[in-house]
Specification:
single chain, 261 residues, mainly beta, Immunoglobulin-like, 7-stranded mixed beta sheet, 5-stranded antiparallel beta sheet, 2 helices, 6% helix, 46% strand, globular, Thiol:disulfide interchange protein DsbD N-terminal domain-containing protein, signal, DsbDN
């Protein structure tokens, strides 16, 4: 899959004017997007999600696309964007054009706070098939006048949250990370279920960029994979912004900060 800059046909800027807890769908050639929000909770937070309804055969990117494409961008006004969750992705493409993302509809749960009336999300993402199209959409939702959440919207957001990777646990966790001497590779040691398939391995952590993980191999009781570093900033603080290790082993997924020496 080529980078969007070289294959995009057009930039779609598609505003919506819906003023409800769920925005209208913004339709594009490869998929549709909408914003779903719930009323402000007692602690002042707002649960929300970006709903990406991919069409058959189309794909979109993870937060670190693996050197090809661009990650989704979500800029929120009318509230403070605290966090965006990403389900564990898949390795897509081929040996020459490898990238990391999703080939089915995907929902990204969000946590917001300091909401004041309508919430607008300006979204930029790439959807790809034979060609890649960058999509920009403005999505507006307003649940400020609602006292109770719509059950369908609450169920949808709860489902998106449930699909996020679980935390580290015994037998499925990171063990260590090691920079290569030239800083161009990270060797990751981890544990994964012994009775399952060898897991797919992903690293992420802006402003770093990582490539496709190398083959997973056994090293005693641990599993090991080497991951190329495509971009390493000159200055970084991993204590403040740790790199995340994401594993997919069959139906099980895990995500946890990775300590790198």
């Amino acid at each position: 899959m080529k980078r969007l800059q070289t294959t995009a046909l057009a930039l779609l800027f598609l505003p919506t004017a819906a003023m409800a807890a769920t925005s209208a769908w913004v339709e594009t050639p490869g998929g549709d997007v909408r914003l779903v929000t719930l009323p402000v909770a007692a602690d002042g937070t707002v649960r929300a999600m970006l709903d990406i309804r991919l069409h058959d055969g189309w794909k979109t990117y993870w937060r670190d696309p693996g050197g090809s494409g661009i990650p989704p961008s979500i800029v929120v006004t009318g509230a403070n964007l605290v966090s965006v969750g990403f389900p564990a992705p898949k390795r897509l493409g081929d040996a020459e054009n490898h990238y990391i993302g999703y080939d089915k509809p995907v929902r990204l749960p969000m946590t917001l706070d300091k909401a004041d009336g309508a919430i607008k999300a300006t979204v930029f993402l790439g959807v790809c098939k034979e060609i890649c199209i960058p999509v920009q959409a403005e999505l507006t939702a307003d649940a400020s006048a609602e006292s109770f959440a719509n059950p369908l919207e609450e169920t949808a957001i709860a489902g998106a949250e449930a699909r996020l990777p679980g935390g580290a646990e015994d037998g499925f966790r990171p063990l260590s990370g090691q920079w290569s001497a030239d800083g161009k590779t990270v060797t990751v040691r981890f544990e994964a279920p012994a009775n399952g398939p060898l897991p797919d391995v992903f690293l992420s952590g802006a402003p770093f960029e990582f490539g496709a993980a190398g083959p997973v191999r056994h090293d005693g009781d641990a599993l090991v994979s080497d991951i190329p570093v495509l971009h390493r900033p000159k200055v970084f603080d991993l204590a403040k912004n740790p790199i995340q290790l994401t594993l997919r082993a069959g139906d099980r997924t895990m995500e946890s900060p990775l300590a790198i020496e």
